[in-house]
Write a structure and sequence with these properties.
38% strand; 8 strands; 4-stranded antiparallel beta sheet; 2 helices; elongated; mainly beta; 151 residues
């Protein structure tokens, strides 16, 4: 990750309030998708490989320029591990456009993308795992873990 990208990521996370800093949603209200181009979740960790000092494994989700319709919300996913990069899209569950995507760090090589149903689903505060991003010196993979449908 370039130093300016790291500086931006650090600036972005430190300029948010403490609940946003830890990627935790407000369970008091429904999530409203921010404007196109907004970063909605991000996390990074320094790569622990011996020859990779100063390199990072980072993942962030951004609202695309074209917002999904018909109850479907897409997010652009950008993952970097050292000098490698992977880009993809994730699709929130149909009917779940009000679900805030979150990123939880599982360990030094895995980030889990998911959501907390919250107020819209009877106050359920459990983190539901949805996608896994894996990074190592061999590459980056992005895979769905579960399927959900919101009625």
């Amino acid at each position: 990750m370039c130093r300016w990208q790291l500086a931006f990521l650090l600036f972005w996370t430190t300029s948010c309030n403490s609940s946003k800093l830890h990627n935790e949603p407000s369970l008091d209200s429904e999530w409203q998708v921010p404007p196109a181009g907004s970063i909605v979740a991000a996390d990074s960790i320094e790569v622990d490989e011996d020859l990779s000092k100063g390199l990072y494994f980072s993942v962030y989700l951004k609202v695309p320029q074209t917002i999904g319709g018909g109850g479907t919300q897409y997010y652009e996913l950008d993952a970097k591990y050292g000098h490698g990069e992977a880009k993809s899209e994730i699709v929130m569950p149909r009917g779940g456009e009000h679900l805030q995507p979150l990123i939880h760090r599982k360990d030094a090589h895995h980030f889990i993308i998911g959501f907390i149903p919250g107020k819209a689903f009877g106050g359920d505060t459990s983190f539901l795992e949805y996608y896994q991003v894996t990074g190592n010196m061999q590459g980056i993979s992005i895979e769905p873990l579960k399927s959900f449908q919101i009625n």
